[in-house]
Amino acid sequence: MENQNLFKWKHYQPDIILLTVRWYLRYNLSFRDLVKMMEERGLSMAHTTIMRWVHQYGPQLDKRVRRHLKPTNDSWRVDETYIKVKGQWMYLYRAVNSEGNTIDFYLNESRDKQAAKRFFKKALAASHVCNLAS
Questions:
Q1: Which of 22, 24, 40, 127 has its CA 20 to 30 Å from the CA of residue 65?
Q2: Cα angle vertex 55, ends 50, 59, to 5°?
């Protein structure tokens, strides 16, 4: 994220963008909750702006932060929901440990056996890597 070209032509400062995306990914906040939080700090933005930031910068943050995640315990649950992303309905799979921390997530257009297997392999690998780090 050090590359300033990632934030070229953005209305907000890179630290505001990264903080907002981090809060969305880390805590159980909606885009509208984040809008209210930013308004309390004197910043006015639309919830769709935050959504676009999450879509644009979220995967890069995930790639850079994954190795620093805290180890998880062996007890975790899987959640699946159907959400609209950029006007298209997608399935969101999410693995959460018993403390409520997100282990991994997976967004896919289809809800089939292959997508579920792909998610579980990814989540189990992420859980295994986190446990090896401890």
A1: 40
A2: 125
73 shares a domain with 129: yes
Question: What residues form DSSP beta bridges with 85?
Answer: 88
Rg (CA), the chain: 16
| Phi–psi pair at 99, nearest 5 degrees | -90, 0
Same domain, residue pair 50 and 79: no
Residue numbers of the domain that contains 100: 69-133
Which pTM does this prediction carry? 0.48
Query: What are the structure tokens assigned to 49, written together?
Result: 């702006």
Query: Which two tokens mark 21?
Result: 């995306």
Q: Kindly report, residue by residue over 60-75, the tens digit of the pLDDT.
A: 887 777 666 665 567 7
In degrees to the nearest 10, what's the CA dihedral of 21, 24, 121, 64? Answer: 30
Residues 74 and 117 occupy one common structural domain: yes
Instruction: Tell me, yes or no, whether 38 and 56 share the same domain.
Output: yes
